[in-house]
Each structure stands twice: as C-alpha cells, then as structure tokens.
Amino acid sequence: MATHEQPATGSAPGGHPARRIDVEPCAARVRVSFGGEVVADSARTLLLREESYPPVHYFPRDDVRMDLLVRTEHTTRCPYKGVASYRTVEAGGRAAENAVWSYEHPIPGMTGIAGYLAFYRDRMDGWSEEGILGGEVERPVPQDLERAVTGGKPRLRQARPLTKRKPVTR
User: Fold this and answer.
1) Long-range contacts at 43-47 (CB < 8 A, ≥ 24 apart)
2) Pick from 32, 86, 123, 167: most CB atoms within 10 A?
3) Yes or no: is domain 2-7+21-161 CATH 2.170.150.40?
C-alpha cells in the first residue's frame, strides 16, 4: 500500500491542511454498468482511501468501455490530487453527465493514479465487487436503496435522455 501525506510540508497549495491518502491495488473484480451495458470490468483497480471520504476504485483505461464515454469541458481541482477532467457515460439511450473523472496529470506524490478513471457510484445503474470475502458482493447504488425504501418511486436525480452533442476535442 502506498501512503501519501499531501503535501509533506503539512499544508496543500492554498493553505489546506495535510491529508492522508492511501492507494493500493484491489484484489476484487469490479464491474460497473449503466444503460444495460457493462461500462467497466476490472481485476486491476486501484483503491484510493482519503480521510473523511468513502473509498474510490480507479480503473485502468484498458478495462473501461471508452467508446461509451464522452469527454466534457468540466474540470475540478483537488488540492491533494490535482485537476480532474470529466466524462459523460452514454449507453442505452441514456446519459450520466460528468459521472466519470480522471487525473491526467496529478500532483507529485499521486502520479500512480494518472490516467485511471473513477465513477460516481450513485450515477451508475449497477456495481459489483467479486472476490471480496470469497464471493461476489452487489453494491446497490443509492437509487436502488431509495427504490427499496419508497416502494419503487425513486426521488433522486434521474439520468436524462441521451441527446446528440459534439465531443470536446483538445
């Protein structure tokens, strides 16, 4: 496991306090689905654990259906990892806008996640992790939990219908 204290000086750019981030290979096979398609399927994810956040799987590009992703102009900046670029998942006539992110050029100390892709679980239709405690674990996304609680009437944001647009080129 690689442990990163971002940055070593005790504060990140902009005066943010130091934060522990652990990145390690994950032994589980992780599958992500959306719109009736398997968008990612990997036994080679990196599991990133950051203080006060749930763990996040980062997928190698070779294990992601890049043909289902459209790069957007949206970016965010994390003082601990760098600038994230985003992609929209388009499958089955639906779209999950800015549901995938990647750090193409992360800050020093986080280069191990460069080019890997992460998904917002709550924007995907399905998520499973196989090989955890010797079996497959279905990880319901929040919409699934909401449907169970509300008797099938989801109240969370729904994916919008797919509309044609030009991909962003850089």
Assistant:
1) 43/131, 45/116, 46/112, 46/113, 46/116, 47/23
2) 32
3) yes
